């Protein structure tokens, strides 16, 4: 077999090997893996130094979150405005919500079943009276405003800019949908405005590309801090729970989400390979929202229509947190087993129902999964709130798989819903997936070099009364 060698590759075999090595190290996912390994080693052997590196991870996450809400707003507004047809908007939105509820409910049920079959926590025999509930008082206080009524009320912000300042995804969705629907009423009259919004969005996506170059540094700092502060000893002590959450999350992605993809006509392994950069960065940074902008771009280049991506992907980060759902049910049963409290079938079904709502409040909040759990435990009225202290030491380790699963589930949700509504160019998608991330890198360069700037027409006054 003749090896295909790029024209710019060195002719000398030794130089060519070096050239391939340099090219391999330039891949983002390779850099992130190396950074995570080095950060873990530093955290283990030099914990004091490693803990001082926390700002590296924090700065990277802040830099990305700085532009997450504006990008979500612009993506949804442009998507709805260009979709135009109210019936199509309603159809896509309804089908997306149906998918979200089915997927997240399955995730909750699987976590509940595994928590019963694999009784992690039995034998700990923790006495709630001896646990320091003050250690979780801050989380419980944060969770008090996450009741169902407060959750629904807080969707509507008090001012237009409030959700952008606070970085709250669900209120941004509400404002964006309202604005997008309003623009639909004016039809062609607002095309110049849509053109301006698209150009602003392109500029923000350009910022994402610049920030992503520093992802390995952020991953290094975040992992070094995690291992340095909590230590591998903490992981060993409650390793069974961490292992269980990891195994269930991975199996959920492979079996359940992989099954959805198979029905939609996609290969799970190719999809995971295509998005491996984003998944690895999220795993290290423990924040799924940081990769929303980049995932939106890659889904569009993959062949999913922009309007569907703009409506489904951001919405999923409020209604489709599958990784968080798995964690919440398994952690709840862990507390029950550890404190020797027997939960009846009726009580477990009640927990399941409550979590259908409380899991939705985990989006865009640092430590959102733990806070959502803190909102659920007092509502149940059976488990001691102090039982949450058993999870504090290892929650950070489980936050990694939660974030990675949440991102993966919403990428897959966008592909499945897009296929459901006929908004995916399957020929292009399968070709891009078959060629892997390199195909996306080529498409990204071509998009940046060849796409002409959309001309902006002068804005014309719009008569609101007659629109």
TrEMBL record:
It is a multi-pass membrane protein. The chain crosses the membrane at residues 28-45, 60-84, 96-118, 169-188, 200-223, 243-267, 343-363, 369-392. Keywords: Cell membrane, Membrane, Symport, Transmembrane, Transmembrane helix, Transport. InterPro entries: Na-dicarboxylate_symporter (IPR001991), Na-dicarboxylate_symporter_CS (IPR018107), Na:dicarbo_symporter_sf (IPR036458). One of its GO terms (molecular function) is succinate transmembrane transporter activity. It comes from the Bacteria. Residues 442-454 have a biased composition (Basic and acidic residues). Residues 437-467 are annotated as: Disordered. The keyword Cell membrane applies. One of its GO terms (cellular component) is plasma membrane. Gene3D superfamilies: Sodium:dicarboxylate symporter. One of its GO terms (biological process) is L-aspartate transmembrane transport. NCBIfam families: PRK01663.1. Belongs to the dicarboxylate/amino acid:cation symporter (DAACS) (TC 2.A.23) family. This is C4-dicarboxylate transporter DctA.
């Amino acid at each position: 077999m003749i090896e295909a060698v790029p024209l710019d590759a060195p002719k000398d075999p030794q130089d060519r090997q070096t050239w391939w090595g340099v090219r391999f190290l330039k891949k983002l996912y390779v850099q992130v893996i190396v950074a995570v390994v080095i950060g873990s080693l530093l955290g283990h052997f030099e914990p004091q130094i490693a803990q001082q590196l926390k700002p590296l991870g924090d700065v990277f996450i802040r830099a990305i979150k700085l532009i997450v809400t504006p990008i979500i707003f612009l993506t949804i507004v442009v998507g709805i405005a260009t979709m135009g047809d109210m019936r199509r908007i309603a159809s896509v939105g309804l089908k997306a919500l149906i998918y979200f509820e089915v997927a997240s409910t399955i995730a909750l049920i699987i976590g509940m079943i595994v928590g019963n079959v694999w009784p992690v926590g039995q034998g700990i025999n923790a006495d709630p009276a001896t646990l320091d509930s003050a250690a979780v008082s801050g989380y419980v206080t944060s969770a008090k405003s996450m009741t169902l009524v407060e959750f629904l009320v807080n969707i509507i912000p008090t001012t237009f800019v409030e959700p952008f300042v606070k970085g709250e995804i669900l209120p941004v969705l509400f404002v964006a949908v309202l604005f997008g629907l309003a623009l639909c009423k004016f039809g062609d009259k607002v095309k110049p405005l849509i053109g301006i919004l698209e150009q602003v969005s392109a500029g923000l996506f350009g910022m994402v590309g610049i920030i992503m170059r520093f992802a390995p540094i952020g991953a290094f700092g975040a992992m070094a801090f995690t291992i340095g502060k909590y230590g591998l000893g903490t992981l060993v002590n409650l390793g069974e729970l961490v292992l269980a959450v990891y195994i269930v999350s991975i199996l959920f992605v492979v079996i359940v989400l992989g099954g959805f993809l198979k029905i939609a006509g996609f290969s799970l392994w190719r999809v995971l390979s295509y998005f491996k950069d984003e998944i690895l960065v999220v795993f290290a940074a423990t924040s799924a929202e940081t990769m929303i902008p980049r995932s939106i771009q890659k889904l569009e280049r993959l062949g999913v229509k922009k309007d569907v991506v703009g409506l489904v992907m951001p919405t999923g980060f409020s209604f489709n947190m599958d990784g968080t759902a798995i964690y919440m049910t398994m952690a709840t049963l862990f507390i029950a087993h550890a404190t020797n409290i027997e939960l009846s079938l009726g009580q477990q079904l009640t927990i399941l129902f409550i979590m259908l709502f409380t899991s939705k409040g985990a989006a865009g909040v640092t430590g959102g999964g733990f806070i959502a759990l803190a909102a659920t435990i007092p509502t149940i009225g059976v488990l001691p709130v102090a039982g949450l202290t058993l999870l504090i030491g290892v929650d950070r380790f489980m936050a990694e798989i939660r974030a990675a699963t949440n991102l993966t589930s919403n990428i897959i949700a966008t592909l499945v819903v897009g296929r459901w509504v006929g908004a995916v160019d399957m020929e292009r998608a399968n070709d891009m997936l078959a060629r892997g991330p390199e195909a996306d890198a080529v498409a990204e360069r071509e998009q940046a070099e060849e796409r002409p700037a959309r001309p902006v027409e002068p804005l014309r006054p719009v008569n609101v009364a007659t629109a």
